[in-house]
Automatic annotation (TrEMBL), chain A:
Signal peptide limits: 1-25
Signal as UniProt keyword: yes
Name of the molecule in the record: Amino acid/amide ABC transporter substrate-binding protein, HAAT family (TC 3.A.1.4.-)
Species of origin: Halanaerobium salsuginis
SUPFAM superfamilies attached to this UniProt entry: Periplasmic binding protein-like I
Record-linked Gene3D superfamilies: 3.40.50.2300
Automatic annotation (TrEMBL), chain B:
Topological relation to the membrane, as annotated: Multi-pass membrane protein
Keyword Iron-sulfur part of the UniProt annotation: no
Pfam families cross-referenced by the UniProt entry: BPD_transp_2
Name the record gives this protein: Neutral amino acid ABC transporter membrane protein
Gene Ontology CC entries for this record: plasma membrane
Length: 406, 287
């Protein structure tokens, strides 16, 4: 008898909660985010998520979206793993009912998510960090965008850094065995050989192994001048750096964007002093980056020298612009609006001027969005025009050195 | 280069061997593949991290405390989970151990986070012998010595003590052991305790050589099983030998094939062994 009563109460509670969530759902506009909290890119996860949350805060503080509705972000942890990423995207689309997603970070996750979930489901996907050249040529019906430039550019910058600035003739490359690693590796090899250099080894590695000594031994075989490492910090990058140093295989390195995190120097500061790396960065000019830095630090404290925090903000903001322009949350409408709303010679909108953006959209004006990572403009393939920065390790910290523009 | 690879193989192999001894005994006595073994190994390594880094105790003390705590967790797992399920199909026990593995791994994630951890942030420069002919770190010498001591201790335990002999008897034939008056329940608890200590040691040594990550043990689980099958299920000596063979052949294989395919070597050996001699090198005949 008692059990039965509990059951009845439970049923009532369940219906009440269902109907309440139904009521709330009407008042919010949902955007999904696919940010890794664990796995290889875990060290970027929290901060890129903060980037998206900051955009959400600005939009909601300035009257919300689509006539006063609140913007709601639903995050799913991709674990930097393609399978979990696809599952997560599926959940966002079918359970949470989103039609626009910011993410994923790793190209190795973004591409399968696009191919198997978002493109067939007519969901707009904007990646704030996937740099693989493969994304450019993906058959995506225009549903896939990114707020970072392709690695075909980063590869050129990294190879030129090695051959021109650092005068290396022989280079060994170790890269993570996924779309990101392969794409960047190919771009670097092509440019470095064009520069007259020799690639002595180009070795793919499987993430999350405890020892990379055999890979390193193979890479060091023909005595290259330096090791160019394409990896993420937490699923192999740091291990490879430490084992390369510990076993005396390499003492000179060039890093790419996946390793632009202060964690890589912990305990090995003196050995990595003066090493260089590359990463997408904000376009010079415009005061978006500065405004972003101030807003971020007011909200979350000091901003770490990691990439993709600003591009995550931009991806969220631009999606919101497109939803506002489309006047609905329909995937196809958002896709089309993304192409229409942004223009190089539109009216300038800064990252904290959501109200102004809404007015401009209402008036049918085009917008030049001075984003946190510089002006955001998409080309035909949905890639952002962008810049690659060269960074340097100085006194154990990561400092930005110079910027190369496309 | 071949000598260097051999040395790397012996180091990896002795770590695998330590983990495989316990796995093999459990497999032999309780008749199920204990899939949480790898994560128990990770747990041991993180316990040592707790004592050594977070509580700043000396390494030897952290090692002993972590080994004891891991043994305790193994015994608790036995009481809470496996003892009840053992009466049913061994497949059910096996699946439940996969569940236990996931629980342990996520507890580790919860407490220590997903980032890589190190017992010592600073790196150690190797001792270079014969003009780069052989490089070995001090840590690796410590690993080899500790592994050797533990293996000798296991040998003495299994051959000289009543409990050790009972364990071997049960791994050989549990019914016969029971008839001769061995208290099987007690021996099972001690088997878990010993496995816990050895796997914790394997995890700590692995992390000592490289670093800690929540998936370190899970990723080593399949080489562990390969070592057990190669040596013969239920045979602790076979497991030691199997571990060394797997470790050495994985490292040596990079002379001929790309390092990316290293994990495949363990499976190739395992599959070949299953086809040619399913009972393993030192195992009893399969009925």
């Amino acid at each position: 008898m008692f059990k039965k009563r509990i059951f009845v109460v439970m049923m009532i509670l369940m219906f009440v909660s269902l109907s309440i969530s139904g009521v709330f759902a009407q008042d919010t506009v949902k955007i999904g985010t696919l940010v890794p909290m664990t796995g290889g890119l875990a060290s970027y996860g929290q901060f890129t998520r903060n980037g998206t949350l900051l955009a959400q805060k600005i939009i909601n503080d300035q009257g919300g979206i689509l006539g006063g509705k609140k913007l709601e972000l639903v995050n799913v942890d991709t674990q930097t793993n393609p399978q979990s990423g696809v599952d997560g995207a599926q959940k966002l689309v079918s359970v949470s009912g989103v039609n626009a997603i910011v993410g994923a970070l790793s190209s190795g996750v973004t591409i399968p998510v696009a191919e198997s979930v978002t493109v067939p489901g007519e969901v707009v996907l904007i990646s704030p960090a996937s740099t693989s050249p493969i994304l450019t040529t993906l058959d995506d019906n225009g549903y896939v965008f990114r707020t970072v430039p392709s690695d075909s550019l980063q590869g050129v910058v990294a190879a030129n850094l090695a051959s021109n600035r650092l005068d290396y003739d022989k280079l060994a490359i170790i890269y993570v065995n996924n779309d990101y690693g392969q794409g960047l590796n190919d771009a670097i090899v092509e440019q470095f050989e064009k520069n007259g250099g020799e690639i002595t080894a180009s070795i793919a590695f499987e993430p999350n192994k405890v020892s990379y000594r055999s890979e390193l031994m193979e890479a060091a075989k023909d005595s290259p001048d330096a090791l160019l490492l394409v990896a993420y910090t937490d699923d192999g990058g740091i291990t490879i750096i430490r084992q390369a140093l510990e076993n005396g295989y390499f003492d000179k390195f060039i890093f790419t964007d996946g390793l632009k995190a202060p964690e890589i120097t912990e305990g090995v500061e003196q050995y990595l002093e003066g090493m260089y790396g590359t990463a997408p960065t904000s376009m010079p000019g415009g005061n978006g980056p500065e405004i972003f830095k101030n807003l971020y630090e007011k909200e979350f404290g000091e901003i770490p020298p990691k990439p993709y925090i600003d591009t995550s903000f931009d991806a969220t903001f631009v999606l919101a612009l497109a939803i506002e322009k489309a006047g609905s949350t329909d995937g196809t409408a958002i896709r089309d609006a993304l192409g229409e709303v942004l223009s190089e010679d539109g009216m300038v909108v800064n990252i904290n001027e959501w109200n102004k953006a809404k007015d401009l959209i209402k008036a049918g004006q085009k917008i030049r969005y001075e984003g946190a990572s510089g002006p955001v403009l998409f080309n035909q393939a949905g890639d952002s025009m962008g810049a690659i920065g060269i960074w340097k390790i100085k006194d154990g910290d990561i400092v930005n050195d110079s910027v190369e523009v496309q | 280069m071949a000598v260097q690879l051999f040395l790397n193989g012996v180091i990896l192999g002795s770590i695998i061997a330590l983990g495989a001894i316990g796995l093999s005994l459990i497999y032999g006595i309780l008749k199920f593949g204990h899939f949480a073994h790898g994560d128990l190994m990770t747990l041991g390594a993180y316990f040592a991290f707790l004592f050594k880094v977070q509580l700043a105790l000396p390494f030897w003390l952290a090692f002993i405390l972590a080994a004891m705590l891991t043994a305790l967790v193994a015994i608790i797992l036995n009481f809470v989970l496996y003892r009840h399920l053992r009466k049913r199909d061994s497949v059910i026990v096996m699946i439940s151990s996969v569940g236990a593995a996931l629980i342990i791994r996520n507890i580790i994630l919860l407490f220590w986070g997903p980032q890589n951890k190190f017992y010592d942030k600073a790196i150690q420069m190797p001792i270079i012998l014969g003009d780069g002919f052989l490089r070995i770190k001090e840590n690796q010498i410590v690993i080899l010595i500790l592994a050797l001591i533990l293996v000798i201790a296991v040998h003495l335990f299994l051959t000289r003590t009543k409990l050790g002999k009972a364990m071997r008897a049960m791994a050989d034939n549990i019914d016969l052991a029971q008839i001769t008056g061995i208290n099987t329940e007690r021996v099972i608890i001690w088997t878990w305790a010993m496995s816990g200590v050895l796997t914790a040691a394997a995890g700590i040594l692995l992390a000592f050589d490289t670093h800690l990550t929540p998936v370190m043990g899970w990723n080593l689980l399949l080489p562990l099983f390969a070592a057990v099958i190669l040596g013969g299920i239920g045979s602790p000596y076979g497991a030691m030998f199997g571990g060394l063979v797997i470790g050495i052949s994985q490292e040596m294989s990079t002379l001929v094939i790309s390092a990316a395919y290293k994990p495949a070597v363990a499976f190739t050996i395992m599959i070949l062994m299953l086809i040619i001699k399913p009972s393993g090198l030192m195992g009893k005949k399969v009925s």
